[in-house]
Each structure stands twice: as structure tokens, then as C-alpha cells.
Design brief:
Layout (H helix, E strand, L loop, with lengths): L1 H21 L12 E8 L3 H14 L4 E4 L4 H5 L1 H9 L3 E4 L27 H19 L5 E3 L6 E2 L2 E2 L10 E6 L14 E3 L7 H14 L2 E6 L11 H13 L4 E4 L1 H18 L46 H5 L84 E2 L2 E2 L2 H9 L1 H4 L3
Parallel strand pairs: 1-2, 1-9, 1-10, 2-3, 4-7, 7-8
Antiparallel strand pairs: 5-6, 11-12
Helix pairs in contact: 2-7, 6-7
GO biological process, one term: carbohydrate metabolic process
Protein name: Polysaccharide deacetylase family protein
GO molecular function: hydrolase activity, acting on carbon-nitrogen (but not peptide) bonds
């Protein structure tokens, strides 16, 4: 009976240890903090300059401001935005014209010329990249993050976010304040929460949930005490005061600083695992799907299924296009295009590796002939090694190789397949 009680007590003591061993390791935030907090503000509104930035500066926090660069507040208050950038705040890209999908009952405010459903993906890419250049003229930075307007990514001909990934450190896309798993976080699909008329208690509840999960929370505000989709200055101040009192628990910084750190940690974890990177989580909650929607493949066969454009094979150009003609099914090149041995082969002496010229024509440059050879046996190559005497060179004439393919006659090759290809494809005749 006594030993049974001891065994039961040992089992109870082992339960917390087993539970702790079963839990995945927490993400390592700087200085041992438990979570990261990103405070962002969209659309370049006046209330952000008047209320949000002064509140952040009072508490010593850095925020991220995503500018819609066509708004009058960017042009009229450019000096204020530059001062915010000098103060350490991030200026992010929020597109030029804030294109959103016009579908839905609450999208009647979308102008027809700014309807994402009628805008090609290539145009969205060009406008967003132009926005990066305009932001560089404001703050001089070269790295950016992007917030998708309205959470809409499907342009008229496909998802335009696939074209933007190389130009950004991270992209905000999807709905959700707290990141569920840092190991599986996709830097180009970071979910956010856009509070509207929220209280300080509501905002703090999201922050505490991120601390329990050991991940990060992303807020994207609009108006602060004004404009639209606003949060009261009191609620905003209550959130900042709570974060200020718990600096040892929460890391508050700009979104680009947090994502730089996250990507470094992910790369280090991947290297420690032998190059095996964890599967990326693409939670597109606003789009109603768990994975990114793909666009139809617009490249030539063998692309026959709707796949992302980056997986389509590029069409062949130049000589590759000539080799893939039906008249040349084996894909072989004519002899003239094959790699020929260099002019300085083993059958020719080193001293005779010079381009020949017709007899009687004066040399266009000082050659190694006896008439123009430097005095004292110096070398034309600039080295101290003298050229060998003219008499010691091989008297055998140098054979010149023809640049025409083997079997050339009348503009075609004797072999029927390549001749047919050259007649059908003018690019091949030009040697492209």
C-alpha cells in the first residue's frame, strides 16, 4: 500500500514535466520577451500626424505608417512625414490609388478607375514599385513592407502579390490580430487586425493573447480621434500606457524591424535543421481560402493547368528557339554554332597566334614582323620575355577555319532538317 502511494505521487509529479516536454519551444524574442507588438497606421491620415505620432513619441515607441501616396495629406504635409521618418518611424507602401475590389454590397465607394477587378496584375506591380521609389525620395530608405489595400489581392488576371514578393521584406495580408505560429509564419502573408471603435481593454486582450502564445500581434489603425474607421485617443493611449508598463514582456517596434528579426531567426532555424525549412503557413482568411489563389498559366505548353506564373517555363529565345523547331527534332546545332577550338591550339606555335592579313596591306597594328618588331627583342605583350626569332617560327601556313556550317550551299545546309529550319525561321538565318 505504501509503495502504491509513492508510485502515484511520482506519476503526479511527472505530469507537468511531460506536458512541458510536449510543448513546442517558444520563439526567441530579443531580451527574453514573450511577444512582439506592431503598431501600424494606414492611409496617411491627418489624425495620425496630429494624434498618433505625438502619443508614440511620448512613450518612446516606433510605429509603421503606410502611405497611400495619392492622398493630399502626403503632398501637403510632406515635411511632417519626413520628420516622422527621421524620428525612427517606418514609412510603408500602401499603393498609389488604394485599389480594392468593387464587388460586394459595401464597396460602392470604390471608383471604377480604381477597381482592382478591372486592373491588370502587371499594372498593380508597376504602381506599387513606383510607390517604393516615391517613398525613397521621402525618407531615403531602400527596404519596405507592404499592406494590401482592403485585403484584396486578386487583380483582373490573377494574384498580383506573387509579383511583389522580391521587392519587400514582408507583406501584410489576411485577417487576424495574433499570429498563431511563428515557425510556420509566411513573411508575405502576415495577418493583421484593423480595430474600429475598440476600447483599450479590447486591444490589451489581443496583446495578452499573443504573450500566452509567444508570438506577435499586429494592429493596423486608421483614424485616431478623427477621420474614418477611427479609435478614440483614450483607447489608443490606454494601449500605449499598458505596453509602457510591461516593457520587459512585450517588444514594441516597427513592423519592418520585427520582420527582419523574424526572418533572421527563421533562416537560422532552417540552417540548424540542415537546410530543411518549415512549411510556410499561407492563411488567407480574408480571401476565404487556406492557400493563395493561383492565376491561369499564360505561358506556352507544357503549361496546361492553372498554376502560379512563376512556375511556368519561360519561352525559348534566339538559338534555343531555332533548335526547338519541328524541322530539327533532335535539338542539335549546326557545326558553325558548335564550340570551335581556340585559335591557339596545340598544332600551332605560340608565336604564330596572330590574325592573318592579305599580302601587300600594311598592318593595322604593330605586329610581330621583322620590319616593325621592337628593338632589343622586346615583347609586344608588355612582359620581359622576348619573342622567339622570326626564323624559328614554323613555316607551315596556318589553316583558317570556315565560319559556314558543314555542307553550306545556296543559303541552306545539305542536311534537310536544318535547311528547312533555316528557311522557315528567319531568326535562325540571322544567327540569333
Amino acid at each position: 500500500m505504501r509503495w502504491a502511494r509513492v508510485a502515484a505521487l511520482a506519476a503526479l509529479l511527472a505530469l507537468p514535466l511531460a506536458a512541458a516536454a510536449a510543448e513546442p519551444p517558444r520563439f526567441a524574442w530579443p531580451e527574453g520577451r514573450r511577444a512582439a507588438v506592431s503598431l501600424a497606421y494606414d492611409d496617411a491620415l491627418d489624425s495620425q500626424l496630429d494624434n498618433a505620432i505625438p502619443a508614440l513619441d511620448r512613450h518612446g515607441f516606433k510605429g509603421s505608417f503606410y502611405l497611400q501616396l495619392s492622398r493630399p495629406s502626403v503632398r501637403e504635409r510632406l515635411a511632417d512625414w519626413r520628420a516622422a521618418a527621421r524620428g525612427g518611424h517606418e514609412l510603408g507602401n500602401h499603393s498609389l490609388f488604394h485599389q480594392c475590389s468593387g464587388k460586394g454590397p459595401d464597396r460602392d465607394w470604390v471608383a471604377p478607375e480604381h477597381d482592382l477587378d478591372a486592373t491588370p496584375a502587371s499594372r498593380m506591380r508597376d504602381e506599387v514599385l513606383l510607390g517604393n521609389a516615391m517613398l525613397h525620395a521621402i525618407d531615403g530608405e531602400t527596404e519596405r513592407t507592404y499592406t494590401v489595400p482592403c485585403g484584396d489581392a486578386m487583380a483582373a488576371d490573377g494574384n498580383y502579390l506573387d509579383l511583389l514578393e522580391p521587392a519587400f521584406v514582408a507583406i501584410k495580408f489576411g485577417t487576424g490580430a495574433v499570429t498563431p505560429d511563428m515557425a510556420a509564419l509566411d513573411p508575405y502573408a502576415v495577418t493583421v487586425e484593423a480595430p474600429v471603435a475598440a476600447s483599450a481593454e479590447d486591444l490589451i486582450a489581443h496583446v495578452e493573447a499573443a504573450a500566452r502564445a509567444g508570438t506577435m500581434v499586429n494592429f493596423t489603425f486608421h483614424g485616431i480621434g478623427g477621420d474614418y474607421l477611427s479609435v478614440s485617443p483614450e483607447a489608443h493611449e490606454g494601449l500605449l500606457a499598458y505596453l509602457d508598463r510591461h516593457r520587459d514582456v512585450y517588444w514594441v517596434d516597427s513592423f519592418i524591424a520585427i520582420m527582419r528579426y523574424v526572418r533572421e531567426q527563421q533562416a537560422r532555424t532552417s540552417a540548424d535543421a540542415g537546410g530543411r525549412q518549415a512549411p510556410r503557413l499561407r492563411s488567407r482568411l480574408s480571401a476565404g481560402a487556406a492557400t493563395r489563389r493561383t492565376s491561369a498559366c499564360d505561358c506556352p505548353p507544357p503549361c496546361v493547368a492553372p498554376v502560379p506564373a512563376r512556375h511556368c517555363p519561360r519561352p525559348a529565345r534566339g538559338r534555343r528557339a531555332c533548335r526547338r523547331r519541328p524541322g530539327n527534332p533532335r535539338g542539335s546545332m549546326p557545326p558553325a554554332w558548335r564550340k570551335r577550338p581556340s585559335r591557339g591550339s596545340a598544332t600551332r606555335p605560340v608565336a604564330s597566334r596572330r590574325p592573318t592579313r592579305p599580302a601587300g596591306r600594311p598592318p593595322a597594328f604593330p605586329g610581330p614582323s621583322a620590319a616593325v618588331r621592337p628593338a632589343g627583342g622586346a615583347s609586344w605583350h608588355g612582359s620581359d620575355r622576348p619573342l622567339p626569332p622570326v626564323a624559328s617560327r614554323s613555316p607551315r601556313p596556318t589553316r583558317r577555319r570556315s565560319r559556314r556550317p558543314f555542307g553550306w550551299s545556296g543559303g541552306t545546309v545539305a542536311s534537310g532538317s536544318w535547311g528547312a529550319t533555316r528557311r522557315k525561321n528567319p531568326q535562325c538565318a540571322r544567327g540569333m
